[in-house]
Amino acid sequence: MSKIEINQLSKKFIKRNKYIEALQDITLSIQPGEFVCLLGPSGCGKTTLLRILANLEKTSTGEVKIHQTDKEKPLQSMVFQENGIIPWLTVEENVAFGLKMRHLPSAYIKERTDYYLYKVGLTNFKRLYPKELSGGMKQRVSIARAFANDPEILLMDEPFAALDEQNKFILQEELLSIWQETKKTVLFITHSIDEALLLSDRILLMSSQPGRIVKDINIEMERPRSIEKVRSDPAMTDIFLDVWEHLQNEVKQARL
Amino acid sequence: MRKKVSIPQLITISSPICLLLLWEFCSQFEILDPRFFPAPTLIIQTLVQMGESGELFTHVTVSLTRIVFGFLLGVIPAICIGLLMGMYRYFRHFFSPIIMIFMPIPTLAMLPIILILFGIGEFSKMITIAISVFFPVAINTAAGVANIDKIYVDVAKNYQANAKDFFFKIALPGSLPVMLEGIQMGQAIALLTIVAAEMIGANSGIGYLIWMNYKAFLLPQMYVGLLLISFFGYFFSLLLRGIERKLLPWK
After folding, report:
1. Helix (H, G, I), strand (E, B) or coil at A39
2. Cβ of A84 under 8 Å from any chain B Cβ?
3. Residue B200, CB half-sphere, CA atoms under 13 Å: how many?
4. Separation between Cα atoms, residue B84 and residue B100, nearest integer Å
5. What residues of chain B lie within 8 A of the CB of A80, using their CB?
6. Would you say residue B144 lies in a domain?
7. Which pLDDT tens digit goes with each residue over B39-81?
8. Residue B2 lies in a domain
9. End-to-end CA distance of chain A
């Protein structure tokens, strides 16, 4: 039974009286517990696809389905790009946000919030407001909020794109360690090949507009992974070059 | 322990003192006509005398009561309507033209109508203040809600906030900074309006005090009125800034 099922999905926008096709005929299924990266050039519609799954946008044709195993759990929770945490709530309130919105018992909220604050190393910062946090800490809050909500699947929209290299590596490894513990199904958007190689079980490569899925690559490297291991593994280098070539072609085509 | 005063602070304190000293000097040596510009020391003396006689207290209480109640009478509906306008398109389309029509009219120009409608009692003064405060607060509140970053709306939706939670966790706190700016503006306008309104149609209050003493050519007493307005203006803006700091710890 697959966790996410997308069937012949397409999405059209109207922009200045012209139809723009953002996504075209996307069909895919994602297994429970899989970490899948959607990789593509900017403007290829990957965010649109994620927003459709997040129920923030509608499909034009086709359908998406997230398989629910537990009626109590929300279908999905999203980790937003940046500035996704709410500035007028403290770190603790931000992490508890999803649980509070679902009006769960406060003892349970407290326990889960504390647990994930501990997991992302923000226990000592829980009374602070976001303005007092660094970019990396903010994204930790965002990740903790999504995991604490305990959804069927997690959606991540380039959560580390705005971070510097060092912070990015640290957060990627932290994310992997939390993920390995919870075994959630994750759909992760990125435009960084390194990031996709490090994180995913599967990379879905997208074309530039209209967005289609042009390649489905399995990454079989054993976990736990680290950026050094990924960089030194010859099989991964081959995949890197393959993906790199594809992306370059896509970007060039988009320029014509 | 010695308290350190920085140079910018020193300059800030020194400018009003310089002005007062200059005024005192010019008035004492009749460079400025002391009948029109009584010395600051004389004004302070008058203030003390008026304070002792209890006259001052009555006028101040009357004005402050009008300001406080008028202010609340304007701010509360302004916030409600502003929030509705910010959150719901149809409310915005409905209320915008009404606000656009009434906003440019100075409230004082509507004073005759207010007097006809509400008589010459206290309530008509409060209404005058309420109307003048209403517009900046309503407009700023609506703008505050409309300017909440779209991403927080998405977050609320994604984490399944219901309408009530959305209002209290996102719309209200998110619009608060801009709303408070409107309230600051409203406060200044309220003071302006009440003094002018009391000059025209009242027999008590600070504005009345200024106008009557001018007519009776009791200029030190008139200056006392001006001093009081300046003081309360400063006091209210400090108060609101204090409230702002309490309400917006995240800013």
Report:
1. strand
2. yes
3. 17
4. 17
5. 151, 154-155
6. yes
7. 999 999 999 999 998 888 999 999 999 999 999 999 999 999 9
8. no
9. 42
* CA B65 to the chain's CA centroid: 13
Average confidence (pLDDT) per 10 residues, chain B, 251 residues: 77 91 91 89 92 89 94 94 92 92 89 89 92 93 92 94 92 93 92 90 90 92 93 93 93 85
Give ipTM to 2 decimals: 0.90
Q: How many residues does chain B have?
A: 251
Tokens (6 digits) for A145: 């909020």
Residue at B32 is within a domain: no
CB–CB contact A88 B174 (8 Å) = yes
**Does residue A211 sit at the B interface (CB-CB below 8 Å)?**
no
Q: Counting Cβ atoms within 10 Å, is residue B13 exposed (0-12), middle (13-18) or buried (19+)? A: exposed
Q: pTM of this prediction?
A: 0.84
Q: Where are the alpha helices (DSSP H) in chain B?
A: 7-28, 40-53, 55-87, 89-102, 111-118, 122-146, 150-158, 163-165, 172-201, 206-215, 219-247
- Does some domain include residue B215? yes
pLDDT digits (tens, 9 = 90+) for A69-102: 888 889 999 999 878 999 999 999 999 999 999 9
Q: Are B38 and B93 within 8 A, CB to CB?
A: no
Residue range(s) defining the domain that contains residue B167:
51-244
Q: Decide: A243 and A203 in contact? Cβ < 8 Å.
A: yes
**Measured between alpha carbons, how far is residue B9 from residues A233, B4, B5, B6, B14 in Å?**
63, 10, 6, 5, 8
DSSP structure class, residue B33: -
Number of structural domains in chain B: 1
The type of residue at B152 is: Y
Q: Does A149 touch chain B (CB under 8 A)?
A: yes
Side-chain-side CA neighbours of residue A201 (13 Å): 15
Q: What CATH number does residue B132 fall under? A: 1.10.3720.10
A10, two tokens: 């397409």
